[in-house]
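Handout for the seminar on molecular recognition.
Each group receives one record of this type.
Step one: identify the two inputs.
Step two: read the structure output and locate the region that could contact NAI.
Step three: write two sentences on what you found, then compare them with the reference statements printed after the record.
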Amino acid sequence: MTALNTSARVAVIGAGAMGAGIAQVAAQAGHPVLLLDNRPGAAAQAIEGIGRQLGKRVDSGKLSVDARNATLANLQAVEAIEALADCDLIIEAIVENLEVKRTLFRQLEGICGEHCILASNTSSLSITSIAAQLERPQRLLGLHFFNPAPVMALVEIVSGLASDPALAECLYDTAKAWGKKPVHTRSTPGFIVNRVARPFYAESLRMLQEGAADCPTLDALMREAGGFAMGAFELTDLIGHDVNYAVTCSVFDAYYQDTRFLPSLIQKELVDGGRLGRKSGHGFYSYAEGAVRPQPAEINSAASVNVCIAEGNLGAAQALLSRLSEQGVEVIQRDGQGLLRVGDAVLALSDGRMACQRAKEDGLRNLILLDLAFDYSKAQRIAISYAAGIDPQALDQGVALLQRAGFKVSLLSDSPALAVLRTVAMLANEAADALLQGVASAADIDLAMRAGVNYPQGPLAWADAIGLAHVLKVLENLQAGYGEERYRPSLLLRRRVAEGRTFHD
Ligand code: NAI
């Protein structure tokens, strides 16, 4: 089945933030669009709002007057549900309540033709459950846009137990024709993005709780080493802690309290205290007038280093060596176990053990652990940790080497898998389980995380790039270190390592 023709009549119910955005997207694509809301006048007001938004784009030269007029001419506010009788696609974006949505769809079945496709923009309710009491449950699917709908490219096409696969293809092609990046997903809690993204927040919150570093340092590491657009604290301040905490709790409960999704007491306290983030003027950071954003912590060294010894392959951190050479550091290569020696210090990419453990188990004095960077050749910052009792001079030499390469160096307490490595390993682990459980394909999971939450790379492709054996070792060490189920590696990750395959082959 191909995309709906632009002559197909689309209706959007719910003229709030999402409904208005979705109506705009469909109208821009050329469909006649009816907008309905149960608050009198709300649909007309929403269309006026769209007109103002488009007007600003015309003023700034980003949109032609003709394009704006064509979009607005396609939009019509209606006040009665009966006006939707001859629609071909109806997208619901009303209040997030199962019974209210079920009632609405039952009512629509009585009004619309049998050919009409029904879609819900729900982000947390089961499509199977919404469709359960319908006469034609096969015609209901999820069409999950991201906020703001006209800007965010991702659309999750969600199939419930009864959904017709041909309609999923039709909505996929239609979303593509609307300029979006659609992905297919089964109706499971959180779909792709709201499930796979949970560790991004959870691991930073846990590191904060354990005193690994403060918020600005962890945020800066996620941005400047991890390549993420924002760190978890600044991002949840933007999303709103009430919203983010509610999603976490809903996914946690939906997976029968699997500790992988355990909500954070730190975030709960913010919600309890009304510190909801930007919208309330205070979250992890203050947004009061004149508030100064605290700076990330850095560790500096005045030592001078000109030579280092690379023993074996540094794994994902290997690109560090060319960066050092480019900065004029002589890199002597030898066989060995993936260590970088400078003066009395030994540096190595974390394998998920704490520095104190690894130093003892591997007999390494003055061990400095390195965190993961998305791209070691470009990252501006890197996290390190070390075991108590390190020789201060050796620490100075290790830090100096990283500074010679151009990194700002942030120190974490001796935490397993540091910050970026731990987060990416857990994201990949969740993505692997979603893949194992048939929620979506590897390509769609990666695309969803890039287009829906702007990750620099899909978590599965990222794990492939790090090396699946290393990711597995990191998770095993996290699980052993914490003694917690939360860090149990996905069966699929183990299988792929044993088979010598990646997630994408
Ligand atoms: P909103 O509160 O901004 O808008 C909801 C609109 O629906 C309101 O204008 C309300 O008057 C109207 N409404 C409520 N019950 C109705 C009914 N029975 N019939 C007709 N109109 C009704 O909510 P928002 O944020 O636009 O969310 C709508 C849906 O989209 C929810 O299911 C939500 O979970 C989902 N969603 C929200 C996202 C977000 O970031 N806000 C992102 C993706 C999905």
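Reference statements: Residues 10-187 form a domain with the Rossmann fold fold (CATH 3.40.50.720). The radius of gyration is 26 Å.
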